[in-house]
Amino acid sequence: MIFEFRKSSYSGGGSGTCVEVALNVPARAAIRDSKNPTGTPLLFERSAFTTFLAALKSDHYPT
Predict the structure, then answer these.
(1) Coil, helix or strand for 44?
(2) For residue 8, which of 17, 24, 51 has the smallest C-alpha distance?
(3) What per-residue confidence (pLDDT) applies to 58?
(4) Do 18 and 12 form a contact (C-beta atoms < 8 A)?
(5) What was the pLDDT predicted at 22?
(6) Which of 5, 28, 49, 61 sits CB 3.0–4.6 Å from 20 for a disulfide?
(7) Splitting the chain (63 residues) into consecutive groups of 10 residues, what average pLDDT does each group show?
(8) Cα dist. 47→13, 27, 37 in Å?
(9) Can you give the pLDDT at residue 61?
(10) Closest CA to 3 of 53, 37, 36
(11) How far apart (Å, rounded) are the C-alpha atoms in residues 2 and 50?
(12) For residue 43, what pLDDT is reported?
């Protein structure tokens, strides 16, 4: 499968380094480091990734 990665407009500042995400993976999300685009992406269950993003947005994540 070919992943369609994208990065947030908020990522990387002026350095251009960031984490990119692909959501076109069936029932999963793929994450990669923009500095290593040919590396193996990390795969997460979509529900776990959605929960993670919601926690980040709400600033209520476990420490």
Answers:
(1) strand
(2) 17
(3) 86
(4) yes
(5) 92
(6) 5
(7) 80 71 88 88 91 82 61
(8) 28, 8, 24
(9) 60
(10) 37
(11) 21
(12) 92
